[in-house]
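Pasting as-is:
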Amino acid sequence: MSAREYEFPPAALFTTIAVCPWRERSPRVDGKLGDWDGTQVMPPLGELSGGAQYASLSLAWNERGLYLALEVPKDAPVVTNRQNPAAGDSLDLYIDTRAAGTSHRATQFCYHLVVLPRPPGASRGGPLIWQRPLRRALQKSPPADFDAIRLAADLRDDGYALELAIPPEALHGYEPDAGLRIGMAAIVHDIQRGAQHWGTSPEFPFERDPSTWGLVEHGAPPG
């Protein structure tokens, strides 16, 4: 029986909690993922909703911030769309820096970040990132500090990679520490294969409801 034959999505049975490992040395944010290892790869949660599973997501943290790496294999050129990012190759990243989980409506700690691996229609140029408001929010979050966020992409013939470094000052309420839990959902859009969901399910109103996002727990340093 496929996931689509259930009367409710399997992801509704539990809340996703993934451990974000601590790393002493911050990754070099250049789009090259050679300084990441398998212990930082997140479990393939898209399979819970019966959706596509083609991209690999890695997370890590230290006192200097949260780090994300995305590896997306492709056999076609990257195509992006600024007006409608989901119609091309893009990443929707939802973060709740406090993850209270007590409300179905966003607070001042909730962010929706959109990332394009390349500018639309350009043969050259680095990745783009911007913030979108969350619908029906109880309180609007302050603007993300994009001067503090570091972002890089590596576009190749066989796919692309994204790296993102988010320091504490970039997002309101983010205070990295061992045991901290933040809400997170990541939706990778691929112009050929559709959307891959991590930390949420397409049946959920994740675009406006932070209680449908997964939890990411900051793991303790070794020793």
